[in-house]
Every structure is written in C-alpha cells, then in structure tokens.
C-alpha cells in the first residue's frame, strides 16, 4: 500500500457538506488545505473555523468549475504548487428528475462539472504527482454510478464515468506511487440533495447517512487501501462478487467472431 505523505490537500466543493468535512478531517490529520467552492462567504467561514481549530494553513479559492476561466485557475494551482499531495475531486452537480422531465441544458451543465471539470483536474494533478513521486487522487462518485436507473440517468452516467476513470487511473498510476480512490456514497445529508431538486424529507431515515460519517468511512477506506469505497454496503463480499463478475467478462469482451447465440439467431433469420 502506498504510504500517504502529508502536505497540502486541494478539495473542491468544500464550502459545505462532504467537502467541508473532508477539509476538517484532513486538516486534523496534518494536511494544509486549499479549499475551492463557488460561495466565497461559506468557504471563508469553513476555512476560518478549520484554521482556528487545527492550526493548519487554509487557503480559500473561489471558483465555479462550470466556467472555463475558473477551472483553468484551479488547474494552474495543481500544476504549479509543489506542496499539493492530494486532490479531492468532490465538487459536483446533481439531478433527481427523470430524463423526460429534465432540461437538457441543465444536464449539459452537470456533465461539464461532474465529468469535464473532474477530468481536467485529474489531468492537471496526475502528471505533477508522478513527477514528484507521490500523490493521492480521491474522486467522489456515487452509488448511482452502479445503479443509474434509480434516479436521474444522466447524473448516474456522470458518476459511472468517474468510476470507470478511477479504474483506469489505478491501472496506469498505481505503480508510480500514486494512490487512487473512488467513493460511492448513497444518499447523504447535505445541501447537495436540495440543490439537485430533491428533498431528504421524502427519504426514509434509514437510507440517509450523515456527511461526517460518509467522510470518515471514505478516509477509513483510503487507509485500508481500497480503490472503491462504498460507505453504506455492510458486506464487502458483495462488492467483491460484483467486481469478480466484471473481471470474468473481460477476456471475452473482444473476440473475432460473434457469440454462438447470435450466430445461430443470424443463421435462423436468413
């Protein structure tokens, strides 16, 4: 397992909820922080509280990752600040309405943050981490990445992208002393839910996790060396079986002839 070195953690979407708790927990672990979010007032309040409580250096950067100029600013920080040892890709936009009730422009904006911005930040951080010989990239995905039919399918698809990218990053970077993790929480008690057009009041209490518990579980999973962390899943053997089934498919995903069932059906239809 790659040893995590302290330094500076850059956390996006850090003005509330999961991102704010990541900032708190990582500062208490000895990291200095660069915290990023759209709301400067909330961001400054989080930064001041954490700095006072932990004595760590906390730098706030107001940025809306849906805007290219702001995104490029954060990319520049990741490339140029050699103290950064961790990127927490937490910023995201959500949606709960089904496709036929969703605005396609809103879906495009969601893709720009959840997919494009996250990807560009990974591209900014990964080469820098490899050049420095160490680093950690945490990508906030969602349980909906493997259950996209539950709510808005575009949102689920953006999180499926995050999971797929994380698998690829692990294959490419694990031997270069870079730690990779995707976190797949279920419903979490944060302002994110309401901003996505939903309401936690509609959900049973037993399926909604507190944000601090989700972050504590995620960091425990990171400490355990997990590539995929599912804070809500009681039995890790369920994920192991899921992943084993995926691996079993891989040798046969590309062959020079169609599967027999299709060949037989094709012959029968002639």
How many β-strand stretches?
9
Q: What is the CATH H-level superfamily? A: NAD(P)-binding Rossmann-like Domain
> Major sheet, described briefly?
7 strands, parallel
Residue runs with pLDDT of under 50 for 5 or more positions: none
CATH architecture: 3-Layer(aba) Sandwich
**Spatial order of strands in the largest sheet:** 3-2-1-4-5-6-9
What is the number of domains?
1
Highest-level CATH class: Alpha Beta
**CATH topology value:** Rossmann fold
Number of helices: 9
SSE run: EHEHEHEHEHEEHEHEHH
Mean pLDDT: 93
Give the helix/strand class: alpha/beta
Could you tell me the radius of gyration in angstroms?
Answer: 20 Å
Instruction: Tell me the helix content.
Output: 40-55%
Shape: globular
What share of residues are in beta strands? Answer: 15-25%
Description of the molecule:
- By secondary structure, the chain is of the alpha/beta class.
- The protein has one domain (about 10-235): NAD(P)-binding Rossmann-like Domain (Rossmann fold).
- About 50% of the residues lie in helices and about 15% in strands.
- The protein is built from nine helices and nine strands.
- It has helices at about 15-30, 40-55, 70-80, 105-130, 155-175, 190-195, 210-225, 235-250, 260-270; strands at about 10, 30-35, 60, 85-90, 135-140, 180-185, 185-190, 210, 230.
- The strands form two sheets. Strands 3-2-1-4-5-6-9 form a seven-stranded parallel beta sheet, with helices on both faces.
- Strand 5, helix 5 and strand 6 form a beta-alpha-beta unit.
- Helix 1 runs parallel beside helix 2 and helix 4 runs parallel beside helix 5 (about 155-175).
- It is globular and about 75 Å long.
- The protein starts with 7 loop residues before the first strand and ends with a helix.
- The relative contact order is 0.12.
- The model has no long low-confidence stretch (mean pLDDT about 95).
């Amino acid at each position: 397992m790659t040893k995590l070195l302290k330094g500076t953690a850059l956390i996006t979407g850090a003005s509330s909820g999961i991102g704010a708790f990541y900032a708190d927990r990582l500062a208490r672990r000895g990291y200095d922080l660069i915290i990023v979010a759209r709301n400067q007032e909330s961001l400054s309040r989080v930064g001041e509280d954490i700095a006072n409580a932990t004595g760590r250096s906390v730098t706030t950067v107001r940025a809306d990752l849906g805007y290219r100029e702001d995104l490029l600013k954060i990319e520049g920080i990741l490339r140029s600040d050699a103290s950064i040892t961790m990127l927490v890709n937490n910023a995201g936009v959500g949606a709960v309405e089904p496709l036929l009730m969703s605005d396609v422009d809103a879906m495009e904006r969601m893709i720009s943050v959840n997919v494009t911005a996250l990807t560009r930040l990974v591209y900014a951080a990964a080469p820098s981490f490899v050049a420095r010989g160490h680093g950690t990239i945490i990508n906030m995905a969602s349980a909906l990445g493997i259950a996209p039919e539950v709510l808005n399918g575009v949102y689920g698809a953006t999180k499926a992208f995050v999971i797929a990218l994380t698998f690829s990053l692990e294959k490419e970077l694990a031997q270069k002393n870079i730690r990779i993790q995707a976190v797949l929480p279920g419903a979490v008690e944060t302002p994110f839910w309401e901003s996505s057009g939903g309401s936690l009041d509609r959900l049973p209490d037993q399926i909604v996790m507190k944000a601090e518990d989700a972050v504590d579980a995620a960091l425990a999973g990171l400490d355990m060396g997990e590539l995929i962390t599912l804070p809500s899943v009681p039995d890790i053997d369920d994920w192991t079986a899921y992943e084993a089934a995926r691996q079993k498919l891989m040798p046969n995903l590309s062959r020079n002839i169609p599967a027999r069932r299709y060949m037989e059906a094709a012959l029968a239809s002639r």
